[in-house]
Amino acid sequence: MKRTRLVGEYMLTGEDVLRCASFEDSIGVNGWPLEKHVAGDVEWGWPPIPESRSYNQLPYRMLLPRRATAGGADNLLVAGRCAAMTHDGQSAARVSGGCFVMGQAAGTAAAISLRDKVSVHDVGVKTLQGLLREQGAFLGADE
Question: Which one, of 134, 10, 100, 15, lies nearest residue 63 by Cα?
């Protein structure tokens, strides 16, 4: 059975996880490695240790369905296992920590969208990041 995934404004990839990617629209971080379940076993994929910072940032864009694929729904956010990720990207970001990050960001962005009367696609990333920081979120490397 072929599985399809939501196509977002950005698709988090396994390469993003392994290279500890940074994003200007970071909503938080994920520290889980690639966890590939294959033929009764688990294959782990780790960023280079100790050379790397050991986590990747998660971009706000992965919560936003591409406008062309959302059927015109400018008020839709997706988080957790439904967020826009490739198969390998999801193997890392589908765990509790990444889902907490995405859920907090989605709820905060929805509140901003309602308050400012704008589409979630038009929520100011700096405004979102500022509120997330006020709430105690760790957004990444420069903090």
Answer: 10
